[in-house]
Amino acid sequence: MNYDCDVAIIGAGPAGIAAACCASECGRRVIIIDDNPIAGGQIWRGGAPTRQAAQWRDRLAAARVTILSMHTVIAICGKTVRAEAEDDVSAIRFQKLILCTGSRELFLPFPGWTLPGVMGVGGIQAMVKSGLSVKGKRIIVAGSGPLLLAVAAHLRRKTGAEVLLLAEQTPMAKVLRLGASLLASPGKLAQAVKLKWQLRGIRTTFNAWPTEAVRRGRGLAVMMRIGRRSETMECDYLATGFGLVPSTEIAQLCNCACDNAGFVVVDSSQRTSSPDVLAAGEITGIGGVEKSIIEGQIAGFTAAGRTERIGRLLGAREHAYGFMRRLNDAYSLRQEVLRLADPGTVICRCEDVRLADLASQSSAREARLQTRCGMGPCQGRICGAILRASMNWRDESIRPPASPVRLASLAVPPAADI
Questions:
Q1: Residues 6 or more apart from 352 whose CB is under 8 A from it?
Q2: 0.85 exceeded by pTM
Q3: DSSP state of 264
Q4: Pairing relation of β-strands 89-93 and 2-4?
């Protein structure tokens, strides 16, 4: 299939939806490319939609936007996106491209983190929304960041699971300072109070993280470090997550510059260093849904050539950036959780590469060449983030295809010849 548009948007999360609405309402032909069956991204995936989500979905439905669902981007060829669908390869020609590819969970390895029953906090939430029953199951939620709170509340309130423990690695004092700063943001303060109420009765600890997990019967025995003491707890599931990292593979294919933390660099109009390519949402900084929507609107207006309409959004974006900086400071990872793996701990799950295998390597590229770390089906999406966080190794050798695809799709002629 061939498509032509003025603005192509990769990613149908909050940022992508906002960008599509604004560009379309300015009279531009817009196409959204997304690998999920329904628009909304992970944040608005399944469940009862919030008022905010419902408003943007209604606005998107009213806009003249083509949505290519279940399409996986293979490559960017000049001003054409090549994307694989179920039984075809599509070529989407564009004038402006907006990247709204979002983020994914950061996993930090510890002995036992690859056992059945140990999964990411976002992963267990997605599986529950897709039909996994955890009613009556004992669950420990551990790691860092506000996602832990949201997932713990969802598991207890929506699924009937028994959340045994909510363990946050950051000190309580840092979280309290973040909470005090919300006094200047009534909306976020109300959300925090509501979430705290939903978590009532759940044991919550700070300065706490898992150090090891082992199989015990049909469940798990998890060794937790809580302050200066250790405690072993039995559970059915251990859900861990240590924040989010940007999904910048497609941005790197477009030669977009990234900062030292791995986020795409943009100007005040959401333009990247690559001509005619813009970026919005979590790939420019982890700051929540409000930041994503604001940036999406700015990117949409900029791509449509209506930069005079972004002025009213710049103040809101700066406010969102302030919250983002406070959020990242509050949940910065401590060295102890970055060093939980022992020599026998698997780092690259796809290729079964252990920490001891990486001891003689000095870079991500060298590790890839010598151990195949990052060369499995996930193409380093898990272990690459681990190596960046724990060893400060950066892997910039991103090449097409951006995701695993069928050989038949690679055999399709280049977009210019379709």
A1: 346
A2: yes
A3: B
A4: parallel
